[in-house]
Amino acid sequence: MSKNNSNPQILSIDFEEFRNIYQDGITPQAHPLEKDDKLCFGMNPKARVLVAYVPQENAKPYEELKASEYFTRPKFPNTINLQEVEYFVPYFKGKGIRDIYKVHHINTCTKKEFDPESDDERMRLLFQFKFVRHLFDEYKPHNLRIWYCFTDTSVKEIIEEKTIVRFIDLFAGIGGIRLGLEQAEHSEGFGLHQERITA
């Protein structure tokens, strides 16, 4: 299980070190299917999944189910074992998650390498993948657990999870504060649960 957003110990991987060790990149290792495991939509329930925030300006290929690459920013959490990441799930602000992709290769690159007009030579990760299926009929809320950008999870966990955002309402009745929170959580793609404390 990955560490959460508030943990100060999560650092970025060393991209130079990654490139030196994995000169040809990484082909994720399939998690062995154990005797009592039941497939989830044809996938190993224990297979590792990376959920990652995708900016809206990059959403079109995903909407058309034609996306084949994902470039991270120049930071990626060192708590995620890249050799085990078999699947990729894109997260969209205001929507959440819906689709899953099979990762077939992970390597490093610079923004300049995939965008000739950029002069950014900082290294980042490049995930290459292929669409597998919809996990849900509609987009489902999800809480990104690492840096509000990533979640390290499994096929089974992501299918069965229930996303809840808790807040404490110190006021009797439905007021502007609660309504504001509800509007904010819906815009961010979260579910909301209310715990009320009254005098």
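^ that was protein a. below is b, sequence first then the tokens
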Amino acid sequence: MISSYFMKMGFGILALTILISVGLTEDFDDMSIYHLPSKWENQDGKEVVLSELKGNVLVVVMIYTSCQAACPILIGEMKSLEAQIREKSSGDVKYILVSIDPEQDTPERLKKLSQENKMSGDRWLFLRGTIESTRDFANLLAVKYTKISPVDFSHSNIISVFDKKGVLIHQQEGLRVDNKATIDKILELVE
């Protein structure tokens, strides 16, 4: 039994050594979102792990599909950022909308929202996680939200920018604010 344990440990160490030598493990910054073990579901019903997004600048906002107040404005601001960045750079940028209402925001609802707002293609990613992973992610971004009725939430209005290593670099707070600093930061990160 003991020799079997040591044999397994030996194979485990050997496997880890091989993975490291061929570059299949990552050294992420301690503050990287790529350390989060949570799995998400995108608008196409496919599983996404945040570390799959490494190498891209990430522009992230938290919304919910039935929102009639702030979220449509945040969606408009994300579209504006994407259009302005696309005009000035062809760099690797992903625009990510994370649902704060994963119980209601099914992949079908997320897909419908993306189509209604003409936010399709590889640049756009709509995600939902578990209630726990959503709360953890929101806390990381300092986004506060609370359910105030069966269909409505009160929430922060923050657009967050992450560098290619998944480290939070910039945040834009508020609605209809000047986004020049956000655009400048994204352009700086894609260069």
